[in-house]
Amino acid sequence: MVDGPDVVSRALREAPPDQLAEAADRAIRSALGAVRTDVFVADYRISGLWPVLDPDLPAAGFLACHTVAQRCFSSQQPVHDISDEGPCRLYLPLTAWGERLGVLLIELPSAPGPAVTGRATDIAGALAVAMRAADRVTDRYRRARRRERLSMAAEMQWDLLPGRSVSHRAFHLAGQLEPAYTVAGDHFDWSLDGDRLTLTVLNGEGSGLAASMLTAVTVNAMRNARRSGGGLVEQAELASDTVFYQHRGHRYVATLLLEVDTGTGRVRVVDAGSPHLLRLRGAVVEPVKVEQQMPLGMFAETRYELQEFQLEPGERVFVVSDGVWAAEPPGQEPYGQRAMARSLRATRLQPPTEAVGTVMRELHAYHADSDLRDDAVVVCLDWHGPRERNGG
């Protein structure tokens, strides 16, 4: 066998962006002696994994692959599927900078040893980074992800996202939008720059395309200030002024802006009217008390003040929009009154990428699995504490 990762990385660099799966397949067969490969991508609701190379995989074969692939995706660890008959299947997570994209399947003639598994893991990492980059210039992987047509508003919202998760030596962060295929105004954004993590969560006002356009203007105004070197106050004030002079106070956006110092765990906050910030310490869920200020765009020349709180290693922070907190199905009390705290506590042993899905599933169950009446955002931040860059 030749050096797997180098051969595959070169093949991926030379391949057209829509042909990464095919290029990886040819290179993996050559480098590792594989008899078959496939790429499974997670759908928008992260409810399943779907094949890219073999979309017409027979139902029985798909279900057999899917069960093990889902275990690999959830655990983020390689999984061997060894049977007495036929080749060994090796499932590897496709993850780039903490963003879970899917799973790579490699079928080998015999059970791989640690060296082959290690090379295959490196190959999966290279493929994940390539797919993440290619996503901007081809629709192929996005088409594989969607199980139904997105509304125009949802198309805009998903394109505006920075991703669905990111990992760092000091933290692990994940978010999820619902209803995935029709979401309009609620949104989250983040950026990691040196020792600063900036996180914003928006409780979009209105519905449909108008809500999505309002959110897009707000997010891009905050990004413009941030990318010009402005802190949270400048981001909030530019976004507020931009929205106000567009809508003269008739429309506004409740937004929470956070800036985490990844070296100390100190958090700066601007609470512009919502969403809701909660801390999970052990089995205790409690609100993080910060002073609520005016939503962005409600009044002209609104000025904002910073507040601060401290994160301690091992803590988990959730941010939820009103679509989660105030969800009130017929005959039920608001979800945030009691039921939400139970679902947050149920995530204690899950990573944030799984935790946001658990909260959303519990929210759907609270609605008796009927359609959500409002957009919903859940963001989960696990604070590990500052660590040395070498992982110590």
Automatic annotation (TrEMBL):
Any Pfam family: SpoIIE
Span of domain PPM-type phosphatase: 168-383
Keyword Iron tagged: no
Keyword tRNA processing: no
SUPFAM superfamilies assigned: PP2C-like (SSF81606)
Origin superkingdom: Bacteria
Keywords, ordered alphabetically: Hydrolase
Gene Ontology MF terms in the entry: phosphatase activity
Alphabetical list of PANTHER family matching this protein: STAGE II SPORULATION PROTEIN E, STAGE II SPORULATION PROTEIN E-RELATED
Name under which the protein is recorded: Serine/threonine-protein phosphatase
